[in-house]
Amino acid sequence: GACLLNAENQELTGAISVDNISSLTINMTQSVFSGSINARQEGGVVSLTMDEDSVWTLTADSYLTSFDGDLRNIDANGYHLFVDDDMVL
């Protein structure tokens, strides 16, 4: 399945998993996320867009298909972020 998550002025916490037959588009506007995305590398398509007022703190290595935003708004917290198989943090 395909899912669209629009988070505006939200505080989000947790682990997001997307399997290999699914896709997820996340749009963060003035939001805070503490968690991981696809930490198990299950192969789903995940796109993340963050505005300049959003912040993400990683709680595990995370894997995205695409990212649109400023990497300075992501606190790696000792973990790594991979975008399209390239380690960007």
Order of helices and strands: EEEEEEEEEEE
Measured between the Cα atoms of the first and last residue, the distance is: 29 Å
- Shape annotation: globular
Number of helices: 0
Radius of gyration: 12 Å
- Classify the oligomer: single chain
- Helix and strand composition category: mainly beta
| Low-confidence blocks of residues | none
Mean pLDDT: 97
Strand content: over 45%
Main β sheet profile: 4 strands, parallel
Q: Estimate the helix proportion, in percent.
A: under 10%
Q: How is the largest sheet built, in terms of strand order?
A: 1-3-5-8
In total, the number of strands is 11
General description of the model:
It is a single chain. The protein has 89 residues and is mainly beta. Helices cover 0% and strands 55% of the residues. It contains no helices and 11 strands. It has strands at residues 2-8, 11-16, 23-29, 32-37, 45-50, 55-58, 62-64, 66-68, 74-75, 81-83, 86-87. It has a 4-stranded parallel beta sheet with strand order 1-3-5-8, with no helix packed on it. Strands 2-4-6-9 form a 4-stranded parallel beta sheet, with no helix packed on it. A hairpin with a 2-residue loop joins strand 10 (81-83) and strand 11 (86-87). The N and C termini lie far apart (29 Å).
What's the structural blueprint in terms of helices and strands?
Layout: E1 2-8, E2 11-16, E3 23-29, E4 32-37, E5 45-50, E6 55-58, E7 62-64, E8 66-68, E9 74-75, E10 81-83, E11 86-87
Parallel strand pairs: 1-3, 2-4, 3-5, 4-6, 5-8, 6-9, 7-10
Antiparallel strand pairs: 10-11
Defining traits:
single chain; 89 residues; mainly beta; 4-stranded parallel beta sheet; globular
